[in-house]
Amino acid sequence: VGFESLRRALDALEDASQRLRRGPLPPGTRAVDGEGWHFRYAASGAHSVPGDGQFHRVAVRADAAPARLVFRAVPRHSADVHRFCTLETPRGVPYPSGPLQVYIDGRYRVTAPLTGQAGQGELTLALGLEPGVRIVERTARVQQGDRGLVGQTTRVDHHVHLRIRNGLSQAAVVQIYDRLPTVADDAKDIEVSLLACEPEPALTDKDPADRPLEGGLRWTVTVPPAEVAPIDWRYRVELPAKFELSGGNRRQ
């Protein structure tokens, strides 16, 4: 009887194992590939996991890490402001790729993708829209003039003004992204210059999603609660009078 019971138990485990292999992965997860490295996660205590061929969630590890909350926006495209959180993850501890459920003050906020880059320093998570912070105004004034003998050069000045409103109960650090017009490699007689900015921006080659951004500018502004902060900047494009900017010289 003992042998027969053991055989049935082993057969049941094998059936459960096959169902697990054939079944779909949990939403948001992917199979382990060969790009990572071996790592053993030591659980803080004993766990009982049913061998029923289904995926089960088990708490294995808890880490505490410093976190910075920042808000990012690209007013040229949208007045929406997105919330990002940067964590200083423990080095040498990789986290598997998959969905990450984010709770703030005990309340579920969003499910963010975890790319498996944790354990290498900073980890930045996109936490969705922040309705409490908004771009309430963006205007672009364009002025065109001529320079040089018989107007051989066209000068197009752009003045961009925007305002950021913080409706939260605490100060908000907001990063604003924009870019200067780019010039083709063979257009050596076209010049783009930054004339004035208030406040001063930082040059960047990355957009808010960490993708390449040519000619990028980034402002970091701390907006007090229930207040509005302005940003003003001006740039100039000089080009031969026979040329025209893509989209027209009067473009916004």
What does this structure look like?
The protein is mostly beta strands. It contains one helix and twelve strands; from the N terminus they run H-E-E-E-E-E-E-E-E-E-E-E-E. The strands form three sheets. It has a six-stranded mixed beta sheet, with no helix packed on it. It has a four-stranded antiparallel beta sheet with strand order 6-7-12-9, with no helix packed on it. A two-stranded antiparallel sheet has the order 3-4.
Task: Please describe the topology of this protein.
Layout: H1 2-22, E1 67-73, E2 82-88, E3 98-104, E4 107-114, E5 122-129, E6 133-147, E7 153-166, E8 172-179, E9 191-198, E10 202-206, E11 212-223, E12 227-240
Keyword list:
six-stranded mixed beta sheet, mainly beta, 252 residues, elongated, 45% strand, 12 strands
Number of strands: 12
Order of helix and strand elements from N to C terminus: HEEEEEEEEEEEE
How would you state the average pLDDT, rounded?
84
Low-pLDDT segments:
248-252
Tally of contiguous helical segments: 1
- Report the sheet-strand fraction: 35-45%
Class of secondary structure makeup: mainly beta
Main sheet characteristics: 6 strands, mixed
The residue fraction in helices comes out at: under 10%
General form: elongated
